[in-house]
């Protein structure tokens, strides 16, 4: 059964698409916290991109920083600093908590990449002044240029300024890789669990998350984390255009500060040695941030990024208004609710790829007199969806299948079962589940429960058939059984095949070659690289997957070598079904599950061209393609990789 624990208040995510009069100016470096040597911040630099996150039980360790900004008409103070510098002191009364008034302290943290040393920025300004012979009186880190790009501008005491040059870009080239404080590289606030009532940051990656909303004036992403923060946001909603979003969409590869701490460059130590010894300019040249080569790269980037033209957009267009949300309708409890789960039977988990959650759901549905649909191998080892009326039949659907299943007449059979009044559990990939839900979800009679997977992507069934023939040629026997992830060597991915001569082959370079091809990401269906279902906003009632990375979470002790399932209860129906399953579960969160399951926030990416692989398959056959692209590695390379994995486990 699911544990009875307090449910953490979820995040309300929104997109801010309108500039307001008082935009905060991003300050990269603590040197900007106060004016130095007559320098001033250029208040004309306007850019957005602020994210509002959530605090569960944790408060920041350090005290408040600078005095906050008073907001007219509200009895509050707004503090906007790095997450590590905020401590929430909420002194509101119980009556205030139940009303729409905003009393006491409101805290707002920024999505912070990290902060460099104040002396580091001072050394950069000194270098600028030495290069130009002028006194720097202003510096804008991010502003719009005629090319529509964010560029830096240095303002000098003679009234001139310098913008979008190699010199003004030098700080941008090095601060986030070379000059962050050591504590920033291990910061615990790089997560969608935030310490403030509100958080804010750029909505990087919005082009993929919300196509059509982005424009060249900037878009902010907002999280309201507490009821206190939500009430404050409601009071400011009249000046904002808000569009519903999701935390997992904000936490994406272009916004990595919500996923993990920054990583220092391998040139970090050499940069600092050169900075101390030779000064800022020499240190930048040593790491390629200055020089003729850098200038050529900048010129090429400008040409290819904008086509040599400025960025033009019709600013009269209404951005995202169709998706506007009414904050008064927002509930303080939102789905999905996230759990780590294990079936109570070790025997069931040994047969499962992860923690046995599929079997638990199937057991519940069969007990209700229902039927279960899932993916199984047929006699020819083709993945097909089958209809199950007994648990023995459901066992065929246990375990992962890393190829596209044939749905056949499944939708028609689901429709017939529902029409006859029987409850139905349908499991499959997110796109399959969404198809069944749209075709059968509104039918009367029985009721439909859907469970999808966190899907990496699917290769062609014909490709897997070619792989089986490849194995049979190499092994000299007919493959009669295939297990992508047996548990005899623990919870992981070590494929095994059984042959008609009674032999079993596991973990060899031949058998492991399908895994290498699959995770090479060059043979998946084209639609998988733009999959709209790679988000925490699922179309199913329940989502199940492996809880990869659980050993790095606060519930690490729950993990063992038989596997743990990640479970997302996406609807009240899904939560009710999970509660009735024979499982042991622990509450978790999206931010704990995202690092090990990135397809909750983005599709699989193909970083290398796909066409040469497919051309080789057609011209050289499956064997030639596997060798040419090293999906079948040489023996020495394969042995080295296995030894490396062994050391990693130790």
Mind explaining what this structure looks like?
The chain has 650 residues and is α+β, with helices and mostly antiparallel strands. The chain has three domains: 12-329, no CATH class; 337-458 and 525-600, 3-Layer(aba) Sandwich (Aspartate Aminotransferase, domain 2), CATH 3.40.640; 461-523 and 609-649, no CATH class. It is built from 20 helices and 21 strands. The strands form four sheets. Strands 13-12-14-15-19-20-11-21 form an eight-stranded mixed β-sheet, sandwiched between helices. Strands 2-3-4-8-9-1-10 form a seven-stranded mixed β-sheet, covered by helices on one side. Strand 3, helix 1 (94-98) and strand 4 (106-110) form a beta-alpha-beta unit. Helix 13 crosses helix 14.
Structural descriptors:
about 650 residues, alpha+beta, Aspartate Aminotransferase, domain 2, 3 domains, eight-stranded mixed sheet, seven-stranded mixed sheet, 21 strands, about 30% helix, globular, disordered N terminus, Polyferredoxin-like_ET
Question: How are the elements arranged and paired?
Answer:
Layout lengths: L11 E5 L52 E2 L6 E6 L11 H5 L7 E5 L7 H15 L3 E9 L5 E7 L4 E3 L2 H13 L19 E5 L3 H4 L10 E5 L2 H10 L5 E3 L2 H4 L17 H11 L1 H7 L5 H15 L30 E7 L2 H6 L5 H11 L3 E7 L5 E6 L2 H4 L15 H10 L4 E5 L1 H11 L7 E6 L7 H15 L3 E5 L12 E4 L4 E3 L6 H7 L22 E5 L18 E5 L2 H8 L3 E5 L2 H4 L17 H18 L6 H15 L1
Parallel strand pairs: 3-4, 4-8, 12-14, 14-15, 15-19
Antiparallel strand pairs: 1-9, 1-10, 2-3, 5-6, 6-7, 8-9, 11-20, 11-21, 12-13, 16-17, 17-18, 19-20
Helix pairs in contact: 7-8, 13-14
Protein name: Coenzyme F420 hydrogenase/dehydrogenase beta subunit C-terminal domain-containing protein
InterPro entries: Co_F420_Hydgase/DH_bsu_N, FrhB_FdhB_C, Polyferredoxin-like_ET
Pfam families: FrhB_FdhB_C, FrhB_FdhB_N
């Amino acid at each position: 059964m699911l544990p009875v624990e307090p449910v953490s208040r979820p995040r309300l995510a929104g997109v801010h698409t309108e500039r307001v009069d008082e935009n905060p100016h991003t300050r990269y470096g603590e040197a900007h916290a106060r004016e130095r040597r007559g320098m001033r911040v250029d208040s004309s630099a306007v850019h957005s991109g602020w994210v509002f996150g959530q605090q569960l039980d944790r408060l920041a360790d350090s005290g408040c920083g600078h005095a906050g900004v008073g907001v007219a008409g509200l009895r509050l103070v707004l503090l906007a600093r790095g997450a590590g510098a905020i401590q929430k002191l909420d002194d509101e009364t119980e009556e205030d908590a139940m009303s729409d008034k905003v009393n006491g302290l409101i805290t707002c943290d920024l999505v912070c990449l990290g902060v460099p040393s104040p002396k580091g920025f001072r050394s950069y300004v000194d270098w600028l002044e030495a290069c130009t012979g002028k006194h720097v009186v202003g510096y804008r880190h991010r502003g719009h240029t005629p090319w529509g790009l964010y560029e830096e501008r240095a303002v000098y005491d003679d009234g001139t300024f310098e913008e979008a040059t190699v010199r003004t870009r030098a700080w941008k080239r090095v601060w986030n890789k070379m000059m962050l404080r050591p504590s920033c590289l291990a910061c615990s606030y790089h997560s969608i669990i935030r310490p403030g009532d509100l958080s804010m940051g750029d909505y990087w990656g919005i082009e993929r998350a919300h196509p059509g909303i982005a424009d060249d004036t900037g878009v902010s992403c907002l999280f309201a984390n507490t009821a206190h923060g939500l009430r404050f946001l409601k009071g400011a909603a009249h000046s904002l255009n808000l569009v519903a979003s999701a935390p997992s969409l904000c936490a994406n590869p272009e916004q990595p500060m919500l996923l993990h701490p920054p990583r220092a460059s391998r040139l970090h130590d050499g940069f600092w040695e050169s900075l101390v010894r030779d000064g800022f300019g020499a240190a930048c040249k040593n790491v390629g941030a200055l020089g003729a080569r850098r200038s050529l790269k900048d010129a090429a980037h400008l040409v290819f990024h904008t086509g040599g033209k400025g960025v033009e957009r019709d600013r009269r267009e209404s951005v995202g208004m169709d998706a506007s949300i009414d904050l008064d309708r927002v509930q303080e409890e939102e789905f999905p609710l996230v759990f780590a789960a294990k079936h109570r039977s070790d025997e069931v988990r040994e047969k499962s790829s992860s923690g046995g959650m599929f079997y638990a759901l199937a057991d519940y549905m069969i007990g209700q007199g229902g039927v279960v649909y899932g993916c199984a191998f047929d006699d020819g080892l083709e993945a097909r969806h089958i209809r199950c009326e007994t648990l023995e039949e459901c066992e065929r659907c246990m375990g992962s299948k890393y190829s596209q299943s044939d749905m056949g007449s499944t939708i028609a059979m689901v429709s017939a079962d529902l029409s006859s009044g029987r409850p139905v559990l349908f499991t499959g990939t997110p796109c399959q589940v969404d198809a069944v839900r749209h075709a059968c979800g509104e039918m009367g009679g029985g009721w439909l429960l859907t469970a999808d997977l966190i899907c990496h992507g699917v290769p062609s069934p014909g490709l897997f058939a070619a792989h089986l023939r490849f194995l049979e040629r190499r092994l000299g026997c007919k493959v009669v059984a295939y297990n992508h992830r047996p548990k005899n060597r623990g919870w992981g991915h070590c494929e095994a095949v059984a042959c008609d001569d009674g032999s079993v082959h596991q973990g060899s370079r031949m058998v492991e070659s399908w895994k290498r091809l699959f995770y090479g990401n060059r043979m998946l269906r084209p639609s998988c690289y733009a999959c709209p279902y790679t988000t925490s906003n699922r179309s199913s009632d329940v989502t199940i997957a492996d809880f990869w990375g659980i050993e790095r979470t606060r519930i690490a002790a729950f993990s063992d070598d038989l596997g743990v399932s990640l479970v997302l209860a996406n609807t009240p129906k899904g939560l009710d079904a999970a509660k009735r399953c024979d499982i042991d579960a622990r509450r978790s969160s999206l931010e704990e599950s995202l690092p090990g399951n990135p397809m909750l926030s983005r599709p699989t990416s193909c970083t290398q061209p796909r066409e040469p692989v497919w051309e080789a398959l057609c011209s050289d056959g499956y064997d030639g393609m596997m060798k040419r692209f090293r999906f079948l590695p040489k023996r020495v390379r394969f042995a080295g990789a296995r030894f490396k994995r062994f050391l990693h486990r130790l």
